[in-house]
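User: For this week's homework, look closely at the record that follows, marking any run of repeated tokens, and judge whether sequence predicts the tokens.
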Amino acid sequence: MSYTLLGSQTSPFVRRIRLLMENIPFEFKELNIFETEDAITLNKINPLNQIPVLLDNERPIWDSRQIFNYINIMHKLHNMTWEDENTLTAIEGAMNSGVALLLMKRSGLNTEEPYMYMNRQKERIDSVIKHMTPYMKESGREEWNFITMSLYSFLDWARFREIIQPEKYPEVVSFLEAHASKAIVNKTAIPKV
């Protein structure tokens, strides 16, 4: 197996895979999918035109959830329950909503307008954070698994992109602080430039 992970340093979807693969050798190839050349490269490999993409030799695996499933099967990392799967689906829903809001902002739309689509994205993020609050207060501070990695990647990104206001969620701040000193968290930190 020879793994190459295509993605960006800012994507929460990419970061959670980088966290997952901490002890698995891989090459990280950074793409800026908003630049023409990288967008063309990505589209040739992934018709979804999204990151991350994992290449196992020449075999492409699209979508971070499928990459997790693939790595999990190949390396037997986590034994997932249906509750775990539901939790990951909730976190991914919040991530997708956050990305949608960011893309709307970058497209020049005022995401503070009371449009139904924008409100639904914000409501989903808030609902998922509230749902995950007991986890963040309890086992989420001690565990370091794909659920924790996914939640950390999303919340750190949402804070960085100003999708959420951390002061509104003290449990989020405590959860992020609980994992901030991990070497892999620092190694994969979102560049501040």
Summary: The two ends are 34 Å apart (CA to CA).
